[in-house]
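User: Reviewer 2 asked us to show a designed sequence for the structure in our supplementary figure. I'm pasting the structure tokens here. Could you produce the per-position amino acids so we can include them in the response letter?
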């Protein structure tokens, strides 16, 4: 029995897929319900992640802790969407902005409660948690003085 010329087949490349346990992001969703916005912070190198990440992309640590964000944001850029994607075709035109929070993380969210003519790069806004009428959890930027409804 010779094994010198054994036929061989190439195996498929092995891909590793990770299941991120719900428990690792549950706190984030629970927080939104309570009106709080959480980011994750790496216990090892201090990197801040928003949306929260279960692992640190910077130092690969899996030890992260939850930190509540201050909600104070400065608008860095925004865009007004007139031609909506089909999933939003029932909605009015809306504005999407990127705001930099005091903690340094950048957040992409809808900007509501402003007249489009008021929206300026560098203006302050507040990041708030939002529960929509169909119980969908999200977050958006609103004017600073608009704390309730
Ligand atoms: Zn880290």
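Assistant: Here is a per-position design you can include in the supplement:
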């Amino acid at each position: 029995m010779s094994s010198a010329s054994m036929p061989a087949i190439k195996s498929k490349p092995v891909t590793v897929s990770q299941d991120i346990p719900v428990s690792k992001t549950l706190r984030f969703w629970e927080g939104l319900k309570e009106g709080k916005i959480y980011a994750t912070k790496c216990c090892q190198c201090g990197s801040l992640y928003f949306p929260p990440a279960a692992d640190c992309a910077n130092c690969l640590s899996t030890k992260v802790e939850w930190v509540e964000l201050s909600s104070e944001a400065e608008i860095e850029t925004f865009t007004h969407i007139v031609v909506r994607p089909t999933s939003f075709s029932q909605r009015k035109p809306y504005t999407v902005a990127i705001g930099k929070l005091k903690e340094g993380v950048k957040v992409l969210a809808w900007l509501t409660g402003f007249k489009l003519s008021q929206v300026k790069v560098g203006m302050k806004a507040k990041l708030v948690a939002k529960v929509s009428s169909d119980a969908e959890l999200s977050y958006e930027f609103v004017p600073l003085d608009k704390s309730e409804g």
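For the response letter, you might also mention the following. Residues 42, 44-45, 47, 56, 58-59, 61 surround zinc ion (CB under 6 Å). The beta strands are 38-42, 48-49, 64-68, 72-81, 94-101, 106-111, 124-131, 137-142.
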